[in-house]
């Protein structure tokens, strides 16, 4: 029954290029990139889908016009016979609200740099969940920008090594301090049990953004997870419709 309603999985990939062309025709300023590779059989005329990237023109224009220099990256795994990861990137508007920017299946950093003109502006801060793959990719694609990590992920990594009950409060104090004087004060008042913790946090760098948690990314991921079991075009449409509704409602 599901096949009759949603169509055939393989056929959806076959018309993915047509879907991208339709998006570009109907959405001014949109950027759609599809990457494929040849099959192992050199005599085959078909190509195999690898990844897709989509950035709606309206979202791109709004970000470049007046949004803050903050970008969050996160992802969630797809369901179904063909596994992959849907990656999302979002910013923060002038009201500290969520502003989704682009989405892709397994690939978008280089395309994102072109759409948001990141290479001409080195003031952006990227906030990540410390996944090694994203960290290495960011360092390669956009080395001049600053990279930050969500405090929750840092805390849980530290919690495995240090079991002190006051660790959470101390970590939060280190993350929220905004002056060098405050940083020196924390260093002086830290007890001997927190010396190693303080040194560990110091290795992450002094500069930080005032957004410390991954709540913004988790909200968007929570919304798009509802379509993870859909076929690829239906899933891409599911995400696009959600982003367009956000623009209208906000």
TrEMBL record:
Residues 71-156 form the MULE transposase domain. InterPro entries: MULE_transposase_dom. It holds the Pfam family MULE. This is MULE transposase domain-containing protein.
């Amino acid at each position: 029954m599901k096949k009759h309603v949603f169509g055939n999985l393989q056929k959806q990939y076959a018309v993915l290029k047509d879907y991208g062309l339709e998006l570009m025709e109907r959405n001014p300023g949109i950027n759609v990139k599809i990457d494929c590779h040849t099959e192992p059989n050199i005599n085959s005329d078909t190509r195999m889908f690898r990844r897709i990237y989509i950035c709606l023109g309206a979202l791109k224009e709004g970000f470049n016009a007046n949004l803050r220099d903050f970008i969050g990256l996160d992802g969630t795994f797809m369901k179904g016979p063909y596994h992959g990861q849907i990656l999302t990137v979002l910013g923060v508007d002038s009201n500290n609200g969520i502003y989704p920017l682009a989405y892709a299946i397994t690939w978008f950093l280089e395309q994102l740099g072109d759409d948001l003109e990141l290479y001409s502006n080195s003031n952006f801060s990227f906030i990540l969940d410390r996944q090694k793959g994203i960290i290495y990719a960011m360092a390669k694609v956009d080395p001049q920008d600053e990279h930050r990590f969500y405090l929750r992920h840092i805390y849980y990594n530290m919690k495995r090594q240090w079991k002190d009950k006051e660790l959470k409060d101390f970590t939060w104090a280190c993350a929220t301090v905004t002056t060098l004087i405050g940083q020196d004060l924390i260093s002086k008042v830290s007890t001997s049990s927190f010396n190693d913790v303080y040194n560990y946090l110091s290795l992450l760098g002094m500069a930080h953004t005032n957004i410390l948690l991954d709540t913004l990314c988790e909200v968007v991921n929570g919304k798009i997870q509802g379509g993870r079991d859909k076929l690829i075009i239906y899933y891409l449409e599911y995400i696009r419709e959600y982003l367009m509704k956000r623009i209208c409602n906000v």
